[in-house]
Each structure stands twice: as C-alpha cells, then as structure tokens.
Amino acid sequence: xxxxxxxPDRDPDRRQFVAQEQEPFGAILSCIDSRVPPELLxxxxxxxxxxxxxxxxxxGPVVTGSVxxxxxxxxxxxxxxxxxxxxxxxxxxxxxxxxGKPLPGNLQAIVRALRPAYEQAVREGGTDPVDxxxxxxxxxxxxxxxxxxxxxxxxxxxxxxVIGAYxxxxxxxxxxxxxxxx
Length: 182
Hints:
It is a single chain. The protein is α/β, with parallel strands linked by helices. It has one domain: 3-Layer(aba) Sandwich (Beta-carbonic Anhydrase, Chain A), CATH 3.40.1050. It has 7 helices and 5 strands. It has helices at about 10-20, 40, 60-75, 90-100, 105-125, 130-145, 150-155, and strands at about 25-30, 50-55, 80-85, 160-165, 175-180. A hairpin with a 6-residue loop joins strand 4 and strand 5. The longest helix is centred in the middle third of the chain and has 18 residues, at about 105-125.
C-alpha cells in the first residue's frame, strides 16, 4: 500500500532453494483481473504462495482441488479468497443474471458459479449491487472452503485458516471480510 516493496525471494538463490521442493505459507484464490496479481499485491516471491485465478473467484472441482492441494499435501496453513473492487467478471455475471441474457461460450459457466452471490446481493440491496455481489462471492466461497469435507477438519483443529478478503483498486488496501483468526 505504501509502495515500500521488499521484493523478497526473487533472486537466483531463491530459485535454486525452491527448485527441488516447495512449502508455500499460503494459497490464494483470486480473480483473473490483470490489476490484482496476488504475488505482487502481497510482495511475495518464488515458493511463497500457491495461486489460483479464476473469473470472479468462480470454483468447480478442479479449482477446489487446486486450493486443497497445499493444505492437504504439505500443511499450508492459510487460504485466502481474494475478491476486488470493480470486478469485470462479477459485473458481467450480474448483468447477465439481472437481464436474463446468457454470456457467450464458457463465460456462462462463470455466471452459473456466481449465481448464489448474485442472489445474496439482490437480497441485501445497497447502492452498488456489483460490489455487494463481489463481496458476497468472497464470503460464500470462503465459507464453502471452510466447510469442505477435507478442509473442515484442518480448520476445526486450527491448522488451517480460510479467509475472505477484498482488495481496493483505489487505495491498495486489503480488507478481511470473513474467517480471519482472532
């Protein structure tokens, strides 16, 4: 946020260190938006994060399996579902659902995945329904991951935190919406 970047773990020595194995401290499920690269937002380096990116943090079996990979194979203790301000995927899904006009090709799969967040946003109302939907998507996805049959036992014993977060494009801040340990 301050611009005081450390750029850790990005040199040839770090590449050699992680070349044979990895132990990332976190997994981030984020949007495909080019303005929201998790490795840069959190100023991390090689081997620090597992990163999965989908339109509007939409999930399905392959994405969920990818998120599960770190915690289930190497004990990664943190999952962050990271939504963001002015999400184009969420806006497109919102308009598609509101207007009853399907999006072309496989974009409709994103719309289907975001329907629960749309329905929640409609119930909640508010001045910016797309932003409400983006935040709802983060919270719903984080809650689904926390209650996932394979991840829930890790969450219950405190070995895994699944956090919902929201990135402001305007300020560079990340607000935690759900699941942050006390």
